[in-house]
Amino acid sequence: MRLRSLLFVPGDRPNRMEKALGCGADALILDLEDSVTLDAKPAARRAAADFLRLTKGRIPLLVRINPLDSGLLDDDLAAILEVPPDGLVLPKAEGASTVEALSAKAPGIPVLPIATETPAAIFQLGSYTSVSDRLVGLTWGAEDLPAAIGALGARDETGRYTAPYELARSLTLFGAHAAGVAAIETVYPALADADGLAAYARRARFDGFNGMMAIHPAQVPVINQAFTPSAKELAEAQAIVDAFAANPGKGALRFAGRMIDAPHLKQAKRLLEYTDDSH
User: Fold this and answer.
1) Average pLDDT over residues 157-169
2) pLDDT tens for residues 134-147?
3) 238 Cβ neighbours under 8 A, 6+ residues apart
4) How far apart are the first and last CA of the chain?
């Protein structure tokens, strides 16, 4: 499943679900949690279930359910499991044990944990390796965590994350790769700042994230572009692979004016494999 872009769609807005199909996102996340008020949740469950029945197979569809301890999860699952989604987005995840608890209620459905929304969750980011076969990927969030600890925010006056939230981001990135699953960057909330979004998405890919969540269809093309290797990148990666193939006895080579060795070869192969898998 290619996951450059995952677009959130409020579960109580079925008209937006239909429109979202044409925006180019690699996957949609039908939201039953934060974007839906308590009174609207029954209608959102029905709308999400209807959309799954009508649309399953056209595009990967995930559903963000309510947290395990919310008292709302069982009703969420009862509504949507008749035509199971391609994944469940688990908010307030706190490590492998919470994935196991959800899998017991919804066996066989992959999970995308939002893995940094509580203080306890931070100390569980290395535990997902034990449930990697049940994961779509791993992602994080920068809104619930500061609220949980009484912080005034996650970003400084320049818009960059402060040190505690950079740590949460980094641990999510390494936790995902340790588990061998996709690392998914969190949303960029400034809808009018297209340049800022592009820079943020480029940085995410540079750092090793595989994709990113979006909160508006207009963000999707920008995110897709950032996470799609350019022709120049692909050509260089192939040239590196070819150079090592032509020199099987050498562990290091001179290439384009610089020295390259095993990590560069691994990186080049990974880029080419990612591109092949995306088709």
Assistant:
1) 94
2) 999 999 999 999 99
3) 268, 272
4) 10
